[in-house]
Write a structure and sequence with these properties.
Largest sheet: 14 strands, parallel, barrel
Strand content: over 45%
Number of helices: 3
Amino acid sequence: MNKFRTYMSVAALALAVSLTGCSVAGTAASTGQAGATASGAQSAVTVASVEEDTHFDSDDLTWDAAKEVAVTLADGGSTVAAGSTSNAVKVDGGTVTITAAGTYRLSGSLSDGQLVVAAGEEDVVRIILDGADLSSSTGSPFVVQSANEAIVYLEGGSTNTLTDAASYANQGTDAPNAALYSMADLTIAGTGSLTVTGKYNDGIVSKDGLVLAAGNVSVDAADDGIRGKDYTVLLDGAYTVTAGGDGVKADNDADEGRGWLLVSGGALTVKAGDDGVKAVTQLRVTGGAVTVKESDEGLESAHIAISGGTVNVTSNDDGVNAAGGSSGTAQTGAQAGGPGGGMGGGPGGGETVGDYSVDISGGQLTINSQGDGLDSNGNATISGGTVVVNGPSGAGNGALDVNGELAVSGGTVAAAGSAGMAVTPSTSSTQSGAQVTFGTAVPAGTTIQLADSSGQVVATFVTAKQTASLVFSSAAIKAGAEYTVYTGGTAQVTAGLGAGSLDGAQQQGTVTAGEYTAAKGPAGRP
């Protein structure tokens, strides 16, 4: 064993944190979140910005291995390694209590016990799980009652488990309600694995900030899977969450500048009974991979910004939903951006435009929703990246649903769904697009292609479900130009978009770029 253990150097962490920034409309950008500025623009997410805006300090992942305190967990008598001079570990029956700062390496098992951290307010307590299995029949098996910060480090190659009780003896205010429960800032790091089973309520909870720096972590919870209060940050690692309630969230709605969530690396996979990934003030993805396999609403926050990474969302309701409180100002669709802006794709509607936003400036976002696909109760901007929406087949929702302006200035957008609630880019958009509305919906698996006046294919999209409307925008679409719509032909696509040819395709009519209407199909087709 090396004298000094280092999980991740600052230089290595810099590679794990996406360096792409994004621009966000609304007030959340002024809330002190990593990479945010008071003006509302998003600066680059770097190691320095993460460390400045959270409790995380890469130096905390370096320690003197000679000063580790080894604790062997065992039913009827957990023990501290012989020769240890630490008096900060107390064993009382099945309860092991750590009372001071330091590094503690735990192995062994407690079939019905508890690890408690009750250290000083300035203490940093590092818990290395090295083949540790903890279960409790009366409550949480791992509770951080007090500390400045608790670090749970998963030793490389080790397998660890935390399993709580189905009912808790203590259900008072601020009583633990998760298999891993911390009243202090919490960091999870290391390259080992951790399986968390929250039978009672939640899986992993921090009542302060939560940083997921690494680890191979699986969470199965009766209610919420992973919950940070002030903020939740995923820097690296693989986190798989199955939750009866929300999957991963940050839920501080009382303190200004809190309740935000950032994914800048790693892989997050969620199956949730309620919302997949959720934050009160702002949800940002700058890198990594987020996959919401099951949810009511996939991503939800007042302000949602995607500037990098890959996001795949499957939802029973809205796929990406910028919503929150009820504040806002009533504007008609015309006031929000003219024809094509606002509900229904044209003027009127009187939708309330609140302080909410969706901003896509990079990365790849793919949505498969039963409700609205990309939904903002305020404004939305797309300036880069790729957005594919496989929206609802029913007429009560739309692939795009923006109360205010939907401004498109870059990137590629393909939004397919029903025609009755179609929303199209606002007149403020600087990148043009085309709207295809079919008199009769085409089935799943249909190839839809647009070709310019020379016969060059400029768009190829394959439907994932029954589709009556397609809104497409990319740099290849020129305002005012006429495009011929085809179905069929050949296609090679990823997430529905790709390249194709017109061999065997059937002409359906024509559309003119920049001319958006709510219910008109290609010329020559009803």
